Amino acid sequence: MTKFTEPAKELVQHIGGKENIAAVTHCATRMRFVLNDPSKADVKKIESIKLVKGTFTQAGQFQVIIGNEVASFYQEFIKIAGVSETSKEEAKVAAKQNMNWLQRMIAHLADIFTPLIPALVVGGLILGFRNVIGDIKLLEDGTKSIIEVSQFWAGVHSFLWLIGEAVFHFLPVGITWSIARKMGASPILGIVLGITLVSPQLLNAYGVAGAEEIPVWDFGFAKVEMIGYQAQVIPAILAGFLLAYLETRLRKIVPNSISMIVVPFFALIPTVLIAHTVLGPIGWTVGSWISDIVYSSLTSAFGWLFAAIFGFAYAPLVITGLHHMTNAIDLQLMSEFGGTNLWPMIALSNIAQGSAVVAMIYLNRKNEEEKQVSIPAAISCYLGVTEPAMFGINLKYGFPFLAAMIGSMTAAVVSVGSNVMANSIGVGGLPGILSIQAQHMIMFAVAMLVAIVVPFLLTIVFAKTGMNKFSFKK
Fold first, then answer.
1. Membrane-spanning regions, if any (predicted)?
2. How far is the CA of 162 from the CAs of 169, 379, 438, in angstroms?
């Protein structure tokens, strides 16, 4: 018997018994259940279990926050429950039974972009570092940048673009690969499709606006413009889904004896042709509309209002899972405008949630048991992972969550009002400043200070003035 035995037995009982478990897996801090009947889970009793730090439902999965000991708890749980281990992919498939069409679409978007985040984080940091050494006049009384004075740093600046270009200009390759992998198509065909969208044979997407003449493929009866889709998101998504659709459907009707030859040929060639004649131009237009609307909204005279709404609403979006849709918008903004003014607000929302938890740590400083939840949650939040803080502390009490939303809103207005732009997405919380374009780092630091101070003070004020009776939970 271990310290996890009794809590595991309680969780099996309150989750509705092993018969109610369709699938179960875990991540870094949470147990993830797909339940046959979610209504059988007794949330109050589950949250009363000593090791449990909170619960929530997202993407069709009932998630129980355990903390850093989740891996050991999980092993004890599946042994007691008598259920087999489930991979994350299997759990996601099973979870579809509890989702509506909108939730399924959001889950698909999340599954597409999540594998790309490590590369996007690295790319954003590289672009930020290149801006610091290449664009800011730091030396000789503010007249020269570092690369203008040092040949070594000039070489570093040039070399790092090799990686930056691979991440962002060739982003469609990653997107089409990820879609093919997720939808059960051949990942290598996804890679080939992506390369056809960014081939050096094509006119670079960044050069289209200034091109005197666009080259074409001349088929006699028709001409197709040879335009590349470097850094374009929506054309790659549309092409990737078409490839996956054609390949998976062809596999069902083509005999196995000739499948290896026929399926790749009749899936890839039509997809590439349609991508360059129909999907690419449509995707480019739609992507431009979306990025123009978002950018214009944030930079208009009413940008502060848009920022206030987004800053206030982002944390609730995380609860629903709708926040995954912002990844595509961020990447489209980067493609169109060389940066994103949306991502800084997301990083600030992370910080605000963490600051509300810090206030709760101060208010409950004599509660040693809660510190075991709140301190790791605050640290995690400041590093960009908000779920433990939101579900373990802020939503549990209610008023800290509201304080964090107001703090996020205020910081977002400061950020957008100062025209802060990030190079890339992926680095959240306090490290988010590393993603900010060098010329905006000072104002982003001011916005960060707002996101730290306002939620902290509001949480304490709410606690002292009776708002502690307010709760988001029934």
1. 106-129, 159-180, 187-207, 227-246, 258-282, 302-322, 402-422, 442-463
2. 10, 34, 20
Q: Which residue has the tokens 């988010």?
A: 432
Report in angstroms the alpha-carbon separations of 306 from 319, 342, 350.
20, 11, 18
CA distance 60 to 234: 26
In 321-342, which residue ranges form alpha helices assigned H by DSSP?
325-337
- List, for residues 395-431, the tens digit of each pLDDT value: 878 899 999 999 999 999 999 999 999 987 766 788 8
What is the overall mean pLDDT for the chain? Answer: 85
- Mean pLDDT over 143-153 rounds to 90
**Distance from C-alpha of 163 to C-alpha of 81, rounded to nearest angstrom:** 47
CA atoms of 385 and 37, how far apart (whole Å): 29
Token output for 284? 């480019």
pLDDT tens profile 52-62:
877 877 767 88
Cα(185)–Cα(181) distance, rounded to whole angstroms?
Answer: 6
Is residue 457's pLDDT more than 50? yes
What are the residue numbers of the active site?
27
Report the 10 Å Cβ neighbour count for 213. 6
In 3D space, the residue among 13, 76, 79, 65 whose CA is nearest the CA of residue 41 turns out to be 13
Q: How far apart are CA 96 and CA 12, in angstroms?
A: 22
Contact 376, 388 (CB under 8 A): yes
Q: How far apart are CA 394 and CA 352, in angstroms?
A: 11
List, for residues 178-205, the tens digit of each pLDDT value: 999 988 899 999 999 999 999 999 988 8
DSSP state of 203: B
Q: Are 392 and 374 in contact (CB under 8 A)?
A: yes
**Bridge partner list, 32:** 25, 63
Ramachandran category for residue 136: left, alpha or beta (phi over 0 → left; psi -120 to 50 → alpha): beta
Determine the longest span between alpha carbons in the chain, in angstroms.
81
Cα–Cα dist 187/122, whole Å: 23
Domain layout of the chain by residue ranges: 5-98, 115-291, 299-469
Tokens matching residue 359: 């206030």
Rounded CA-CA distance 401/396 in Å is 9
Strand order in the sheet with 54-58: 21-26, 30-35, 61-65, 54-58
Whose tokens are 């673009």? That residue is: 161
Round to whole Å and give the CA distance between 98 and 58. 10
Which CATH superfamily, name and number, covers 5-98? Answer: Glucose permease domain IIB (3.30.1360.60)
The 3-state DSSP class for residue 60 equals coil
412, 311 contact by CB (below 8 A): yes
CA 241 – CA 183 distance, rounded (Å): 8
CA–CA distance, 470 with 449 (Å, rounded to integer): 26
- The DSSP call for residue 41 is -
